[in-house]
């Protein structure tokens, strides 16, 4: 298990080199013009969803935008977003607008992948879509150099921590190398970024139905609160 910014070393180096040459608004423009998944025949249209460009020190990475986000043009604008912002408020990040200013909200893939074939929720982006979009996230992270990544949902969890079950990840803080750290050790450690996993806030996820899982979420929000309260310039 390893905390990385995702991708292999060559991809990260390329993203780092690219990020060194671009400003965040320029990177956003580049992503907004992306048609890779359409060209590959994976989605019928591209509408990348990004937050307002900001130099937030915390980055939250979800799975992919949904239909509401595509319509509104803003990450986490739908039902899942309402749950997420409630959680972030509980963790001390203030109301939705305050959290949006403090946390850079993005996702593994940037375009709505369409509904799930089963009709329950949105389709999980395919490995091919994740691969095509990987460089965008790498460039975002290389440019922002966050001290904390909040990994929301199983796809983001796997991206940063490998194949770790949700119940062994939520409620814990991880440093580089996948080392679990307490909040004080995490802040004292010079290794960055820290990774704090959260479950997906979508109503389609049944993970939170179990009382023990809701207790893990409470622990995760408490850990996030401690990090946010104590971190310098967070
Ligand atoms: S999901 Fe990512 S790679 Fe695919 S078209 Fe959208 S921005 Fe481009």
Q: Helical region count?
A: 10
Q: How many domains is the backbone divided into?
A: 1
Span between termini:
27 Å
| CATH superfamily grouping | Uracil-DNA glycosylase-like domain
Structural account:
There is one protein chain. The protein has helices spanning 9-21, 24-32, 36-39, 67-72, 79-90, 96-102, 127-144, 154-161, 183-188, 211-230; strands at 58-62, 103-107, 148-152, 173-174, 180-181, 194-198. It has 234 residues and is of the alpha/beta class. The protein has a single domain (9-230), classed as Uracil-DNA Glycosylase, subunit E. The strands form 2 sheets. Strands 2-1-3-6 form a 4-stranded parallel β-sheet, with helices on both faces. Strands 4-5 form a two-stranded antiparallel sheet. Helix 1 crosses helix 7. It is globular and about 45 Å long. 40% of the residues are buried. Mean pLDDT is 89; it is low at 1-6. Bound molecules: iron/sulfur cluster. The site of iron/sulfur cluster has 14 residues, from helix 3 and helix 7.
Question: What's this entry about, in short?
Answer:
The chain has helices spanning 9-21, 24-32, 36-39, 67-72, 79-90, 96-102, 127-144, 154-161, 183-188, 211-230, and strands at residues 58-62, 103-107, 148-152, 173-174, 180-181, 194-198. It contains 10 helices and 6 strands, in the order H-H-H-E-H-H-H-E-H-E-H-E-E-H-E-H. It has 234 residues and is of the alpha/beta class.
